[in-house]
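#struct-help
A.M.: can someone run this one for me? Single chain, 123 residues.
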Amino acid sequence: MDSRPFTPTELVDPAAIARIMEFAELDPTLPAEVVELFLSSTEEDLLGLAIAAEAGDPEGVERTAHRMCSSAAGAGATALGALCLTLCEGARKGERCAPNAAEGVRRMRDAFAVQLRVALGLC
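D.P.: on it. Structure tokens below:
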């Protein structure tokens, strides 16, 4: 995997920011709620991914990575979605996932959340 740092636009899709900000005109609390909802909804998946990777369970990795890929796409987490898609495709081929893969996914998810907060003017 590429070890270079991701740029903010690789982490957060600018079109997703625009969509969130459109809705924020109707409800100013929405941007913060989107960030918190994304973080809370992916927490269980991160745990599931860690368990599946540790157990060498490609079906569990595929199922969880696919769900996270969908969540990432909906939230505009471009790089996170790409990483989850790579994990999902590897699992479909029966490839074992590195036991620490979930930690890498967590770090990318957290970096996305920071950039999303910045882009939305929440910090």
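A.M.: thanks! Helices lie at 8-11, 14-24, 30-55, 58-75, 78-92, 101-119.
D.P.: also worth noting: The radius of gyration is 15 Å.
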